Amino acid sequence: MQQVKIFKGVDSDLPELERQINRWIRKSGVRVLSISGNLSSQPGASSGPMSSFAAGDVLVIVHVETEQPMG
Length: 71
Known about the structure:
Number of strands: 3
Oligomer: single chain
Shape: elongated
Structural class: alpha+beta
Number of helices: 1
């Protein structure tokens, strides 16, 4: 059965988001078919030189194959 798992974080804490995703993959025992993601800037973030310090939302979608439905 193919299913998706969605993870959300902020770009200022990507290492923790990576750990969370990798931990879930190991723990769940699913077979990963694909991983895709998107980064969006926060509303009101400036486009000037300081904009690289404004945290943005990160959305990661993991497409998996599993024997049983995920809860």
